[in-house]
Amino acid sequence: xxxxxxxxxxxxxxxxxxxxxxxxxxxxxxxxxxxxxxxxxxxxxxxxxxxxxxxxxxxxxxxxxxxxxxxxxxxxxxxxxxxxxxxxxxxxxxxxxxxxxxxxxxxxxxxxxxxxxxxxxxxxxxxxxxxxxxxxxxxxxxxxxxxxxxxxxxxxxxxxxxxxxxxxxxxxxxxxxxxxxxxxxxxx
Length: 188
Known about the structure:
The chain is mainly α. It contains seven helices and no strands.
């Protein structure tokens, strides 16, 4: 469990640092150079991901709480929203006119959706930890960046394409979830 906790902590700290301490980030980038700073950041993120994967596989899950919606379709709705928001962050659409940080919101919904069906220790660390990170990241980024300027509207066709892509990705993840992650997304 220590590796999993270390990975989630490293991921969170590395991402929160530029938003929570923009002056310190600028000082480091000025001292080392922008390229080396970004290189160290990338290495930190890779290390965090390696620790998360190895830590997840090595951790023995211990029940912490009874998942409130195990077997319910509600967590799947959270995950569909998460995928829609993630796809939204990568494509021009009108959804971004209403949600300032769709990718971070995606991580939050992904984590909460998983916690609704998983009440074990490693799920709490991974999904809970990354949900907390995403919420804090939104707060610190908003504080750092100030007033939000909404993007211009785009044709509704862009929204429809975004939704279709998100539903296709969601269907693919449902189908391949067990083979990719070792857990059936829908209990049988």
